[in-house]
């Protein structure tokens, strides 16, 4: 499980640009709060090798899945949520986790972490309210 700014990152697949080469279907981790994206740590080395070779060969687009076989369940098995889930379920799960972490931060007296988590909870609460409003 990967964390970013008080939220657990979501598992997804997407396209990354490596110089002039677009690499499609790359397993990624995405932060629902700050929107940071990173290559999933289980395939980071494979991505770097494939992207460098494709760029060196002058390929403009390449599909990661054509060269690296990864089972979605095994690669995203440690992610709390996946991007293809209901957005409201994702946000509620993120809020629950952040509330648990907030309790820990308060117990150990970490004021900086407590404030960071409160800011993240505010962001996710607003997002949940928007999603609930849009679902009506």
Identify the notable features of this structure and list them briefly.
136 residues; alpha+beta; Ubiquitin-like (UB roll); two-stranded antiparallel sheet
Number of domains: 2
| Largest sheet features | 4 strands, mixed
The Rg value, from CA coordinates, equals 18 Å
Series of H and E elements: EEEEEHEHHHH
Q: What is the count of DSSP helices, taking H or I runs of 4+ residues? A: 5
Span of the ends, CA to CA: 33 Å
Query: In CATH's first tier, which class of the largest domain applies?
Result: Alpha Beta
CATH architecture of the largest domain: Roll
Strand count: 6
General shape = elongated
Task: Give me a quick take on this structure.
This is YgiT-type zinc finger domain-containing protein. The protein has 136 residues and is of the alpha+beta class.
């Amino acid at each position: 499980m990967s964390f970013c700014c008080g939220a657990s990152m979501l598992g997804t697949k997407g396209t990354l640009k490596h110089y002039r080469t677009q690499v499609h279907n790359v397993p990624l981790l995405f932060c629902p709060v700050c929107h940071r994206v990173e290559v999933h740590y289980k395939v980071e080395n494979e991505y770097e090798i494939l992207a460098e070779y494709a760029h060196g060969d002058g390929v403009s687009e390449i599909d990661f899945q054509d060269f690296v076989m990864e089972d979605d369940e095994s690669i995203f098995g440690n992610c709390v949520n996946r991007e293809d889930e209901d957005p409201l379920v994702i946000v509620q799960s993120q809020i629950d986790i952040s509330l648990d972490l907030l309790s820990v931060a308060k117990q150990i007296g970490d004021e900086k972490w407590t404030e960071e988590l409160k800011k993240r909870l505010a962001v996710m609460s607003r997002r949940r309210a928007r999603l609930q409003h849009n679902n009506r």
